[in-house]
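Summary for the funding panel

The consortium committed to producing paired sequence-structure records for every protein in the target list. Below we show the first two records in order, beginning with the earlier of the two.
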Amino acid sequence: MTDLSKLLIDSPYNPIIDLNNKQPRFGPRYAEIHLTNLCNSHCYFCNQISLRENKGSFDYDFLINTISTLKGNGLKAIRLSGGGEPTVYPKIHQIIEFIGKNTISLSRFDTNGIDLSCTISKQLIECKLKVLHISLQAPNSFQWARITQKNPKAFDKILYNISTFIELDTNRSTKVYASFILDENTSKSIPEMYDLCQKLGLGINIHYLNCHTYKKDYKKNVMPDVDKLLREYQPESNGDDKNIVCGAPWAAILVKPNGDVYPCCALQDKKFIMGNIYYADPLSIWNCPKYNDFRRAFLGINTSGVIFRLPDSCDNNCPVMKGMMSISKNHLLMIGNNNS
């Protein structure tokens, strides 16, 4: 069950979508919050490097007021991510504590693991974190240093931090997984990636880079063999299940440190900015004409019922749609359930 489907199934409000106007009936259930643009790594492929220039971080008091407003209108879960690296946010301890005390589910925490201290790990576990995602990038210190442009000794520190988290989580209540990138140098290391995760007790995600131009000979001669390996090592996805759709437009929101609001983490081009919470109430942005026009592109109705479709702005193989934001169409619409 994905991040979003669990929230919607457990929600007492049915259905999520008002089919008369194709708009959500309530505020966002799931908020992805980018705490800071600061980062302690320098990955060569990072598409967020331009954000480092302003070195912005969320104003803490404004952030907790925003979360409180969203919670009062149905927010159930938060993902702490970035942009930058969440663990270097100046008030990371305070924000985790605030989320825990306000009975908001901490659905996911994304980190490169460099500064995943024992104190932060204990806080995340006490907050009942559901998923810890480690952007490990590579299975050994040599490749990791090439990708992150950091001292290779830091790789061992990350492995230690991961092991410490797992050891502290005595009830194994948090799912921990590592993600790795595929480029011309790491493609032969897929078995090593898998072996490392097996050794540490981690789930695994291996992916190509959207922001990297692969060489033509790599695409032609290497990718087919890599794809075969991926099918062997990667978990099964939702595939072509026509009943699985993206629930993000009606149930999720992404907010950056500068206050800009986006509909999801896969659409972060400036044309998808729906508003800015420093200048408008988050709920007025959630219900604004631009946001509702964006949603209508996903939804149609004909004589056979509700039709979900992907607009041109979305990739049919979007890992967000097929991953944490996937939801059964029946659950999104609560078909067969007349509760109000």
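The next record, for a separate protein in the list, is shown here:
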Amino acid sequence: MADVSVTITDSTSVDVTTSAASSVNLTTSASSSVSVTEKGPKGDTGATGATGATGATGATGPQGPTGSTGPTGSTGPQGATGPQGPAGSDGTSPNAFTTLAVSGQDNVVADAADDTLTLAAGSNVTITTNATSDTVTIASADTNTQLSTEAVQDIVGGMFTGNTETRISATYQDADGTIDLEVDAIPVDLTSDGAGTIHANNVPTLNQSTTGNAATATALATARAINGVNFDGTAPITVTAAGSTLSDTVTVAKGGTGATSLTTNALLTGNGTSAVQAESDLTYDAATDTLQLTSSSGGFPRIELKSEANVTGGQRFVFIKDRGAAPADGDTLGVVRWEGEDSGQNATAYAQIFGKIAETTDGQEGGHLGLQVASHDGEMTIGLELVDGDAEDEIDVNIGSGAASITTVAGILKATSGISVGNHLVNDLDLAGEFVDSDNHLMTSAAIDDRIAAVAGADGWHGSTSRIKILPRDFIPSDGGRPAMIDDTGVASEELFVESFSSNLLYVSIPIPTGFKATHVKINGSATDAVECWEFQIDSKTGVSKGTGNVGTEINITDVTSSSTNYLLLQVANASGNEIHGGYVTIAAV
């Protein structure tokens, strides 16, 4: 159906109803308004309208960044030859120049074909032209005032030539440019006191009046005695000294040595008025600072320090060390060493004593003295050393070297404060009858026995050092079903004993004290029931028989030494009605 068109003029409302119209067009006046009071169902989407006209072009955006410079283009072709210049004054030749250029100056340019180039002479410069030869000469004027070598030589030579000062003549040699100076002989005035040097070739012959016979003398006018021998200059003399000449040995009596030669490095000893002796067995070598005394006699050489002073003090053998600076802890002050040879005759040090500084602090000075011996491989090892302690009047002493070393004391070793064993201090030893409950005390065997007896009695359980008692309570029956019993039928008469039910076996176990061994066992009773002794272990049910016997008889068993696991087990074949009173095990220290 066609669209519906409605035109509204003055009406305030218009009712429009469509049934099949595809659209409704409303036209109103400018002041009218249209209200839709009821909306029907949404119509179908209309067809796409025609494309509108293209809008105006927008404003130009800002300029983008400048791109990178492109590669340089190839060289263009050579230009064409320029036109010929204007003709010269003769109408045919071109100008001789157009431009004259000088670096740093204005260019001179020809203004016309017949323009003239003018050369102007500057300072110290001359310009000369020659029309015939068509040349221009440019020359510099000589204003140089510096003299040449030859000129200088001529001037100086002229100053010297022919000029003579007092006793000095000078001659200029133009050939080689040198000046010769000659000095005449200079007389010496000996009448003045002035100092100076006199050269022999300048001393004139002296001719003056003298007295005496010096010019022709061959002897002293009066002889002079030298050591009792007159000398007048006519001949050599011999001066004697104690019957010999000065060219021979001077005796000790005359202040000499009495010797013509002495052994190198030997020390000199006096021998009365006889010649000084050089002791070849007592030498000093300055190169090694070694003083050596040798002897081939047994028991020698010997050095004695003997004092005859009537004082209580004795002699001193002193080692002094002065480093010229502060010493350091551990500095060695001196060593006394005993050296010999080994089986291969190699020099070997066997023992030495050294003294060192243990502490250098002023007011706390301490020393260190050590005795060393070669320890089985030639190496020197400290066996005894005394070292400064950490308090005044305290000295620490170390003996031996190595855990296997043995220190033997032949007499009595006395410790006033105690001894340390394995870092445990022991300060006393308990003797028989003594006991102190302290980790710092040790006990003798007698003290141990007395202590055991005091605690457990002479034959107590583990008490005695020789016997362990077996009490009625220690017996255990076999698995026959009845326990061991105390038969008290005779209690009224104070008679008690152990018995088993029927003929069941009885057993008793006894531990052996540490450090002991079991040697004998005995069971006491009323009969001679069989007895057997075994050694058992607490970790096994298997035992080893150590002996058999009977009740009432001591059995010498195979010794059983205590261990951490063993014990004794005794078996008694107790017949019905037989009494068991007790027993013992004999022990001994191992």
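Regarding this second record: The first strand starts at residue 4 and ends at 7. Helices lie at 149-160, 445-456.
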